[in-house]
Give the backbone structure.
Amino acid sequence: MFKPLVTVLMPVYNGERYLREAMDSIIAQTFYDFEFLIIDDGSTDNTSDIIHSYRDGRIRVIKNDINSGLVSALNKGIENAQGQYIARMDSDDISMPGRLFKQVLFMEGHPEIGVCGSWVNTIGEWYQGQLWELSTEPEEIKCRLLFCTTLSHPSVMVRKKVLETSGLRYDGAYKHAEDYKLWMELAKVTLLANIPEPLVQYRFNQNQVSSKYSHEQMAVIDRIRKEQLHALGIEPTPEEIAIHDMLAGNKCPEKKELAQLADAWICKLVQANELVGYYPKVAFNVFMNRLRTV
């Protein structure tokens, strides 16, 4: 039985508009040893016809009769993945031809890394042509999780063994930010990294989660941030949450009083981590010092 090194996992629901571009970018990979596991999550458009128009033995399709949602589809994909590595792919994005080769090479050379993303270029209806230069150092990535996700979900490759030994999966209770929650939990048991090269073209469009469910997504993101604050032993006030959200958005305080409050909050975070050690202390101190405004 064919046991690929990599499973490319792509859920799709009514994705006919960009699906062929996404599939072509995987089929054209310079790395060959993979299965392309597509979870057709109850699509009612021409998605199924497009998928089945391809004649490539590496494509494997699981068809859901009804739409189960992204979290359920992703977890079904994880359970059915045969590869040692699981590479995420979205049905409206484009992977660069050398993506899988470069990520496998990195993971094989860094056995301590459990999750590997990359920089991304943006395409689509807005934010086109941006380069997202995400943090590459594992310790800094973990520290940044206190404020935001530090991995671009469709660029990620994960060791399946890490998911199996930890028992971690995408959590439906964190819908619309399930990836952020998973990275936070995985950062407790393994190291996360990014390759400093854009290996994925990330598409912005009006139907994506961050556009359609922005309020719901922000509520879940705030919840994940608070969980990490609680791990530091901090029960934040509403005012402190507002300061934290401001820092997460890279917004520079315009008023001196606000800047002083931000500096006091940073000091509180650093002091809490010195006691608890939830984040690597040196890396956390360096990162937090960069946020100081006074």
Q: What stands out?
A: The first helix runs from residue 16 to 27.
